Amino acid sequence: MTYQSVVNLIRNTAVSVNPNGNFMHGRRADSSLEYSGKLPLIHLSTIRTSVTDRVEGNYSSEIFLFFWQQDTPQTSNVEREAIISAMFTLSEAFMDTLLETGSVSITGEKKTPEYRQLSGTMSGYGVTFNLLTKKVCP
After folding, report:
1. For 53, what's the count of Cα atoms within 13 Å in the CB-facing half-sphere?
2. Which of 5, 6, 39, 66 is found 20 to 30 A from 129 (Cα to Cα)?
3. How far apart are CA 70 and CA 79, in angstroms?
4. Can you point out the beta strands (E) in 1-138?
5. Is 17 in contact with 90 (CB distance < 8 Å)?
6. In which band, very low, low, confident or very high, does the pLDDT at 27 lie, cut at 50, 70 and 90?
């Protein structure tokens, strides 16, 4: 898969599981700059691609995703736990839907809760994984 194909796959999956929210691709700092008011936000950050076997056309892309929901410095810990729990559930739906495409494999999935990030305005879940794909022949 090309870079743009990977971005499109992630974007389409995000829209599928989060139709009333928002998707963006860019630097982590851009999350707050690109804010449109529609939440939750699924944010595709870095994509680091390795060619694991050029002859066979095997690629492994390390994906960094964030699932954000509105938070404030005044939010209680109980309220924040609910935000993080909801974003964990959204991240699970995303990963399940991504696998259902049948065109990719996933390895090395890691998830981390994110507390009051982006100047204290967002909490949620960060997810990293390796997306295994094949080069598409022209």
Report:
1. 7
2. 39
3. 11
4. 22-25, 41-53, 58-70, 105-117, 122-134
5. yes
6. low
